[in-house]
Predict the 3D structure of the following.
Amino acid sequence: MLFTDAHHTGPGAVICPPHPLLAGNMDNNVITAIASTLANHCPVLLFNYRGVGSSDSPQNHLPLFELWKGIDTTAAYGEIVQDLRTILAYTARLFRGIHLVGYSFGSYIALEAVNDTIASFTAIAPPLSEHDYSALFDLTIPTLMLLAEQDTLLGTLPPLPESFRGRCHHIPASDHFFRNREQELATRILTFICEIPRMNSHNEATSSGR
């Protein structure tokens, strides 16, 4: 699903949903809140993972649960990442830069697909203890991490690098699913994206002044 303006010449956004077995689709409450909020600022592309909704799957004969249970058991996420890379390649023809947003499992898939077309990266409730997120802390593009204050699904949050802590924020009175806090979450992301041109101008001025 693509929310776009044919005359738009700036960056757009791609939003990666959570795991398909945890309400991971483009109709997810958090995904739709972010999409509708960002669509007032830039074009937004939403998608479903393979086998979800109308998306094709190499194993269409398998029910969704069996398909993704098999992917999880073997940790065969490379093909899912490749699907996203294909989406990003398509989107790069439409947008000048991509604000990439990933929610939960989607933040891991998004991180694995980061390339030089990505203008910013937002990780929402990333399962840091389940996947390797070391690349997240080395990103040089504008980066934001949003956590739920009362997230009991992800367990204990590993220590964050000191240099990254200023880019990490908690949404108060929220759980992993951000029920009733969706708009606050979406507004935080929009504010972050709108501040990027000013941040880039400041960085350029600082660099040129050295």
